[in-house]
Design a protein that fits this description.
Mean pLDDT: 96
CATH superfamily of the largest domain: Enolpyruvate transferase domain
CATH topology of the largest domain: UDP-n-acetylglucosamine1-carboxyvinyl-transferase, Chain
GO molecular function, one term: UDP-N-acetylglucosamine 1-carboxyvinyltransferase activity
EC number: 2.5.1.7
Largest sheet: 4 strands, mixed
Number of domains: 2
Enzyme class: transferase
Organism: Thermoactinomyces daqus
Catalytic activity: phosphoenolpyruvate + UDP-N-acetyl-alpha-D-glucosamine = UDP-N-acetyl-3-O-(1-carboxyvinyl)-alpha-D-glucosamine + phosphate
Bound molecules: uridine-diphosphate-N-acetylglucosamine, phosphoenolpyruvate
Number of strands: 23
Oligomer: single chain
Length: 425
């Protein structure tokens, strides 16, 4: 097993270019299935989730060649509509192949997708939306076979603005007949990036970024080149690390408007942030201020993917803060780990009460999911002494060579093999 060892107490400083967004790259790679030919996708982060998506594309018949952060996908020979179970269960984003395969091959066989253990994560909103487009489904021994002789546009009102369901339905409807109107759609920037990508291919989609997206079906799409937007959560994580350690960091390749809520909350803590056109300069204060109440919410609210990192900041802010997770049922497993490091945090259902201002101490902790892992890295950078974090594989899903980034900014973080799963107890 791989893990990380962090020596705390060093303020981060210097500049770093933020990687492309995992959550934009994953649906865009899936969307390549929609046209026959060669796509060039740039600024794709080197992450295990992206590798898994590439393996799925290959299993469907695509050729995938990676050169550094660019990926060339040749989709000409795609002819398989069955996503193997072992690949479905590797990542949550395997579900993104449903829409594109239905649009191209008129059928798809899936099983339940994998992903971080942060809640039940059902797929009913995806399935109900696709049914509205005329997709029929049968389920046998955990495998769902979906098929449609043609996809026909309709009005679809999502029960919840699910990011993945919004993207999946967009990708299915794009080659359908007539117009699909998607109401209560998710508004995340990654959805706008998908719209931009699909429109470059010849799609007719408007409204991404608002709660209503209109998709006018077209007969065919063509392959294109595209550069993925910067990762707003990685930028937020690094800003939090700089703020927590009292450092000063320049983050390049950032779209500040994608981080409005994150920036606002970091500023409430007392962290100084200067916004450039494509950059953020972050300066940590001597002392962080508590925030009485924060709750996660769909975009443009405070993102659930920044909740664990925010919790670490609150442990360092003298006074009482309260943080509520509203998107996922069990995304607070890092609370116990932070307590092991000396944080005064109490869990009440999905709300954490924080009595901040106590110093953290290095110890052995376990990353239970991707953002929990990122939070423990920040905690390790703040803590006195050495922190051992198991579960590097979770962190590698979303942060490209995290230790290299942290070391470049003056932190001390080393990847180690040979961790046993007991080292967190
Ligand atoms: C690859 C990607 O983009 N992942 C992001 C995406 O995940 P993902 O697309 O899976 O998240 P959703 O927006 O779909 O999920 C939000 C909530 O809706 C529920 N739900 C979702 C679909 C469904 O069919 N039924 C249902 O009940 C989920 O269990 C969850 O409680 O958005 C999340 C919420 O911002 C982020 O944390 C993830 O980083
Ligand atoms: C939960 C996340 O990702 P996924 O939806 O791919 O599991 C995340 O990026 O924090």
């Amino acid at each position: 097993m791989e893990g990380f060892v962090i020596e705390g107490g060093k303020p981060l400083s210097g500049s770093i270019r933020v990687q492309g967004a995992k959550n934009a790259a994953l649906p865009i790679l899936a969307a390549c299935v929609l046209a026959e030919g060669i796509f060039e996708i740039h600024d794709v982060p080197r992450l295990s989730d992206i590798e898994a998506m590439c393996q799925i594309l290959e299993a469907l018949g695509a050729q995938v060649i990676r050169h550094q952060t660019s990926i060339r996908v040749n989709t000409r020979l795609i002819n398989n509509y069955v996503i193997p179970d072992h690949l479905m269960s590797k990542i949550r984003s395997s579900i993104f192949l449903m829409g594109p395969l239905l649009a191209r091959l008129k059928q798809v066989c899936i099983s339940h997708p994998g992903g971080c253990a942060i809640g039940k994560r059902p797929i009913d909103i995806h399935l109900n939306g696709l049914k509205r487009l005329g997709v029929q489904m049968t389920e046998k021994e955990g495998v769902i076979h979906c098929y449609a002789s043609k996809l026909i546009g309709d009005e679809i009102v999502l029960d919840f603005p699910s990011v993945g369901a919004t993207e999946n339905i967009m990708m299915a409807a794009v080659l359908g007949e007539g117009t699909t109107v998607l109401k209560n759609a998710a508004r995340e920037p990654e959805i706008s990036d998908l719209q931009d990508f699909l429109n470059k291919m010849g799609a007719q989609i408007t409204g991404a970024g608002s709660p209503e997206i209109r998709i006018r079906g077209v007969r065919s799409l063509r392959p294109v080149s595209h550069t993925i937007i910067p990762d707003r959560i990685v930028a937020g994580t690094l800003a939090a690390a700089a703020g927590a350690t009292g450092g000063e960091v320049l983050l390049e390749n950032v779209i500040p408007s994608h981080l409005t809520s994150i920036i606002l909350h970091l500023q409430r803590l007392g962290i100084e942030i200067e916004q450039g056109e494509n950059s953020l300069r972050v300066r940590g204060p001597k002392r962080l201020r508590p925030i009485p109440a924060i709750a996660t919410a769909p975009y443009p609210g405070f993102p659930t993917d920044m909740q664990p990192q925010m919790l670490v900041l609150l442990t360092q802010a003298e006074g009482i803060s309260m943080l509520t997770e509203t998107i996922f049922e069990s995304r607070l497993k890092h609370v116990d780990e932070l307590r092991k490091m000396g944080a005064d945090v109490t869990l009440d259902n999905n709300t954490v009460w924080v009595r901040g201002g106590k110093s953290l101490n290095g110890t052995s902790v376990s990353a239970t999911d991707l953002r929990a892992g990122a939070a423990l890295v920040i905690a390790g950078l703040v803590a006195q002494g050495t922190t051992h974090i198991t579960g590097a594989e979770h962190i590698d899903r979303g942060y490209e060579r995290f230790e290299t980034v942290i070391n470049k900014l003056g932190g001390i973080m080393e990847r180690k093999t040979g961790f046993s799963s007991c080292s967190s107890t």
